């Protein structure tokens, strides 16, 4: 069970991967203060699973060349074609493509829907006591795993 969010794709694709969201101070750029990529031009949909550690998987938008199957290379040893591969690189990406194909949902709507879903879950978990408790003004917030340095061990040999 994970959630969807937008991250800066320039940062995400850099090696090592940088997880940067929309900057809170300046909504036009990513939160990587040394790079400051224009966020809306670079954002990509990412599915995040928080368990023992945090796993991110990018979801590329559906396009006419998409193959509705998971890439065999990616599941074994990583796909060399990366984003240019037309096969899904995760089950979640495949699911999103199917959903987009069937319903025409946009990535924006997927993120919104995911947020709503988690909001509902949180409300169910912290069931308020039936007493007169002053409402807490805790808007937003939540664990901000900003510099989550989570990498798949990539053993790259650049034989130049
Ligand atoms: Zn960035
Ligand atoms: Zn592939």
TrEMBL record:
Residues 70-92 form the C3H1-type domain. Residues 125-160 are annotated as: Disordered. One of its GO terms (biological process) is miRNA processing. This is C3H1-type domain-containing protein. One of its GO terms (molecular function) is miRNA binding. Residues 149-160 have a biased composition (Acidic residues). Keywords: Metal-binding, Zinc, Zinc-finger. InterPro entries: ZC3H7A/B, Znf_CCCH. A zinc finger (C3H1-type) spans 70-92. It comes from the Eukaryota.
């Amino acid at each position: 069970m994970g959630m969807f969010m937008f991250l800066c794709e320039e940062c995400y694709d850099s090696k090592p991967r940088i997880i940067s969201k929309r900057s809170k101070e300046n909504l036009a750029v990513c939160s990587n203060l040394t790079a400051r990529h224009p966020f809306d031009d670079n954002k990509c949909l990412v599915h995040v699973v928080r368990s023992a550690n945090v796993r991110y998987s990018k979801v590329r938008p559906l396009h006419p060349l998409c193959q509705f199957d998971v890439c065999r290379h990616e599941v074994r040893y990583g796909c060399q074609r990366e984003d240019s591969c037309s096969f899904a690189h995760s089950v979640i990406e495949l699911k999103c493509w199917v959903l987009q194909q069937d319903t025409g949902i946009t990535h924006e709507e997927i993120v919104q829907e995911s947020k709503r879903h988690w909001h509902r879950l949180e409300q169910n978990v912290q069931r308020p006591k039936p007493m007169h408790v002053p409402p807490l003004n805790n808007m937003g917030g939540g664990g901000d795993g900003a510099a989550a340095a989570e990498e798949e061990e990539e053993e790259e040999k650049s034989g130049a």
